[in-house]
Q: What sequence folds into this?
């Protein structure tokens, strides 16, 4: 089997030879143990110089596709060693499959405005302090103090650094809280529909889920049990996925219920940084005087998902009751925490938030405008003036998977909202419209495309 | 209450005023809401210039200890805002307490030889690729591939990158495996004595522990249950804390038992990089043909603890059976994984390991030599030619806490081995001698000090 090479191509000849063999090996057209033609032979067959072949073979050798047996020749590497490359193929194929032009998942954030330069600078400063922090079994207090101070200023959250647990993403938060409450509570009251990914982590960690339906004003307080010692998970500021905002009156009632029944409230305040209109309602933690609220948040939306940093503010009464909890919480590297501490300390965090609030606010109102203009009454949604996504309830006979499939054919990734239900889904044609990762000038054309393929 | 200032001191006067008030506020000698004397008043009382007082007050204002009420004066900040500083005091006190001159914990590593420059370079390269990796909900395949390749070369571990889970430290590994097995297995067979920190994480995550005693050749195989579907956790290469190395014969028997009883073996190979003599015995995973071994390891000993990176190689049969597991595993930031990928890719990892093996080997043999020379038969220990610590069984009437206390008085931190037992401890005067973090030339003097204070 001779490589097909194009002498007229702009790609160098050796590169063509290299790419040909790499692909043949990866696709298993050439089996491991097979011998490659000698340099002279192949050069002569292809009518190219020996050097071209040598260069291609060297590259393949270096990358581990070939092994050299002295005086025998070059052979395709054994299968066990090749698995790496098989995986690489998998990955490439997967990436291609995932490479939608537009991703409307709720979890997408704006990439363009991430302050890469500042982050790099803070990282470098953090690196300077690395040598004396190689051990760091004790955690980095600086970041916790900055966070404590920020949460007080922005959300009224009262805390000291000892109450803060830094976790590896929201899944880390849920895993940590599962360990904290699994034995004493066993069951978690959860909004229905609710944040399915978090619900799954609690489930996996052994907590039972008791779904309580959402109203327009948050979880239905009338349905909360009157018995004692419960644990409830709520997103009062901008509920996922309904967008509901819990009014002050309901917040106070929920806290009263918790105090009366000796229950704990887990308050997930995950995208509270992005509220575009009106005064934000204080967090539950800020108005709670009975020490019943566990406050949680994440930097995935406000900074970047790939950082894997979220946090918990424990109530005073739960503050590191057991030293083993502290050990469990060391899940974010020193460098990351130190970089964050500097990023906060030097004012970049607040600057970044101010900028992003403007960016997302513009995107939000533009999205709302374009949806109304193009979809008219074919689509309904909750106007919550907050967050990085809308949930669109599409008036169509098509169910969610069909809507997603039609969008995918246009290279638009759509995630349905059906999985937010623990019980029988009440929404059949509801999808996320995450505008966070879209460019402002892409929004309308994406909407127009969806209108067309969904025949609205 | 007037600040005590020394005009003859080398410390600037404003600094003395600032430090005085800071301390009084932190120690709550001055209550929140109290008003400070006016600049002119205090300057006159102390006989210093107005500027000295202004400079001190400004510093206190900037740091949040004071608030300025226009036309009223300066007041000590409210309690809620002051908590940050209380914590700071806590932390400083704690740090002082922890600042032993010598730390003999098993978890200490060599700081001097950490390749800070190279790490910085790799981090910077990783930062270059950050802009397009802000989302990264998909994980970084490059590091997994490098790890897979390294584990094959060094420990015979057969894997592809899809089998690898990157976790936030060994606690992350145990938490992940708890989720994986909690429902199907409920109970974990554990070495007695064994790795208590890991045992605690499994316990916290809802697995029961069945302790099985150690022999000199690893966990006592005769005591393994003959019933089906068990889960056992072993450290065959260099057991913690006994130092036992499981011989080949026993390894094969353990694997046979697992295959016969349909059980899984969790193989923790945590410091296998550091073996100083003889050929290492292959990992259980390498000699297992029945897909019963879950292989785990960490970079805490071989690279640095503050990185918070450990890993699992799942058996083929468990490879991402559920997509929700993949979500759970995203606990290490993109930048860390990318930095590691580059560190491995460019050969720094193997170079670092080669160097550290030499460094620790020298420290190990020097420690063994000095212990024999100084303690004679007053101390016994297992010679395992591996790892970063020894467990010393001290022939003394003093129990472990007394030994640690006497050492602490000499600024030597000692961790006892008693907690390694889940049941009644069989060792009463056994302590870790972690030499990893000691300078070679400190080792003998530490030993001599211990001999003296322990009256051996």
A:
């Amino acid at each position: 089997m001779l490589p097909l090479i194009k002498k007229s191509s702009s790609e160098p000849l050796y590169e063509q030879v290299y790419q040909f063999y790499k692909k043949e090996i990866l696709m298993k057209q050439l089996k491991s143990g097979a011998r490659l033609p000698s340099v002279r032979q192949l050069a002569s067959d292809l009518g190219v110089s020996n050097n071209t072949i040598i260069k291609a073979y060297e590259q393949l050798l270096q990358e581990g596709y070939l092994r050299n047996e002295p005086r025998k020749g070059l052979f395709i590497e054994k299968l066990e060693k090749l698995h790496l490359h098989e995986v690489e193929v998998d990955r490439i194929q997967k990436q291609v499959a995932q490479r939608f032009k537009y991703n409307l998942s709720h979890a997408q954030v704006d990439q363009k405005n991430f302050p890469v330069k500042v982050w790099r600078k803070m990282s470098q400063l953090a690196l300077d302090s690395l040598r004396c922090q190689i051990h760091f079994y004790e955690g980095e207090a600086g970041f916790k103090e900055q966070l404590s101070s920020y949460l007080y200023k922005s959300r009224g959250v009262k805390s000291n650094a000892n109450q803060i647990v830094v976790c590896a993403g929201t899944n880390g938060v849920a895993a940590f809280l599962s360990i904290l409450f699994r034995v004493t509570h066993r069951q978690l009251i959860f909004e229905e529909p609710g944040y399915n990914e978090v619900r799954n982590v609690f489930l996996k960690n052994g907590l039972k889920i008791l779904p309580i339906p959402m109203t327009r004003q948050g979880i239905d307080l009338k349905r909360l049990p009157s018995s004692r010692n419960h644990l409830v998970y709520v997103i009062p500021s901008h509920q996922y996925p309904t967008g509901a905002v819990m009014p002050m009156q309901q917040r106070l009632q929920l806290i009263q219920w918790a105090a009366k029944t000796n229950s704990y409230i887990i308050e997930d305040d995950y995208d509270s940084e992005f509220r575009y209109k009106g005064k934000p309602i204080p967090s539950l933690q800020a108005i709670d005087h009975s020490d019943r609220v566990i406050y949680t948040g994440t930097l995935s939306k406000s900074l970047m998902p790939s950082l894997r940093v979220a946090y918990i503010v424990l109530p005073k009464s739960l503050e590191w009751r057991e030293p083993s909890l502290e050990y469990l919480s060391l899940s974010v590297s020193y460098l990351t925490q130190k970089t964050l501490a500097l990023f906060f300390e030097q004012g970049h965090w607040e600057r970044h938030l101010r900028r992003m609030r403007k960016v997302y606010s513009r995107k939000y109102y533009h999205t709302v405008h374009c949806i109304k203009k193009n979809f008219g009454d074919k689509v309904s949604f909750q106007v919550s003036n907050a967050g990085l996504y809308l949930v669109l309830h599409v008036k169509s006979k098509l169910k969610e998977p069909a809507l997603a499939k039609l969008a995918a054919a246009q290279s638009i990734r759509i995630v349905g909202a059906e999985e937010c239900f623990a019980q029988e889904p009440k929404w059949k044609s509801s999808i996320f419209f995450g505008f966070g990762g879209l460019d402002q000038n892409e929004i309308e054309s994406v909407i127009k495309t969806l209108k067309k393929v969904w025949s609205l």
About this structure: Residues 348-375 of chain B form the longest helix (28 residues). DSSP finds 15 helices and 15 strands in chain B. The first strand of chain B starts at residue 66 and ends at 69.
